[in-house]
Fold this protein.
Amino acid sequence: MSVIMFLLIGLVAGFLAGKIMKGGGFGLVGNLVVGVVGAVVGGFVFGQLGISGTGLIGGLLTATAGAVILLFIIGLIKK
């Protein structure tokens, strides 16, 4: 996957995770950071479970799930 596609998937995943967890996005840079870190978290979690998402949709679902997990953990720490 190219770097540009990885960043675009991260941007969309961060936006979706923001909508799911908070009800709004985090801005362009915030969505990008949350989505890219979420992609790493999602890849790790799904890898441990033996689940692999391939292609554009699989990558987007993995990154979004990872970003939601990341935001959930951050929410627990902030309290």
